[in-house]
Amino acid sequence: MTDTDNPLDAVVIERSFDAPVEQIWQMWTVPEHFQAWYGPTGASIPVAKMDVRVGGTRLICMEMHTPGGPMQMWFAGEYREVVENERLVYTEAISDEHGNPAAPSSTGLPEGHPVTEVRVELDAVDGRTRMTMTHVGIPSGSPGATGWTMALDKLATYVETGPGHER
Amino acid sequence: MAAITIDDDRLDATFAALANSTRRAILARLADGAATVNELAEPFDMQLPAVSKHIKVLERAGLVVRGQQAQYRPCALDPAPLEEISSWAEQYRPVWEARFDRMDDYLHQLRTQTRGEHE
What we know:
The complex is a heterodimer. By secondary structure, chain A is α+β, with helices and mostly antiparallel strands. Helix content of chain A is 23%, strand content 44%. By secondary structure, chain B is mainly alpha-helical. In chain B, helix 1 runs antiparallel to helix 4 and helix 1 (8-18) crosses helix 5 (80-90). The longest helix of chain B is centred in the last third of the chain and has 27 residues, at 92-118.
């Protein structure tokens, strides 16, 4: 993997599972399975709607148990790439319970707060699965996502070289 | 739960500042070295006050610092807020790691169940 595949604002995790790719694919695309593992500790996933095809939508509800009672957070997104047992790409942003993106005012976030993209790549290795998950933050509604990445790459280089190189 | 020490307001300001192609272009130019407002305005079909306004947004977000040299006050890039964005993304890492641990447990559970059914 080269540095350009790994922009500054991304989390990349590689894991190996003792299960065939078909089963790992179901972990991501069958609501019942997804609900079983996705929720963080102390949270559950009461709703997972998934229309797994390019352009299809997804809506996830995460319910956290707080001392003040249950608190729900909704996430909506769209499937960008669907290659069964190989590659799944979807977007994710905070939304309301109908899947409408939350207005920046209601979340206290400014315009341009990132919609994120999750990419899952599966490789079969001797009946096991090697999975690479990349979670990228990109600015919402930005047609210049490429420009964003390029600018960040350039800035990342600058950060690595360190200040003090100004002319 | 891991302590999150990142200043949300600061991150909001950084993302808001970066969510504009002119401002990203200005930052990319500054990554090559410090420049005056006039130099920064050159590539844009834009009046100086408009460019100054973009620079002020970047300054408020802490991405640009201005020199004190006479009337030129050259602009320079301050990459510190960009490092915070990187850690913003890194906040997700432990969340995902924990999820995949649970996926592993769940897979084991499914396998045990299937074995049970075949007996």
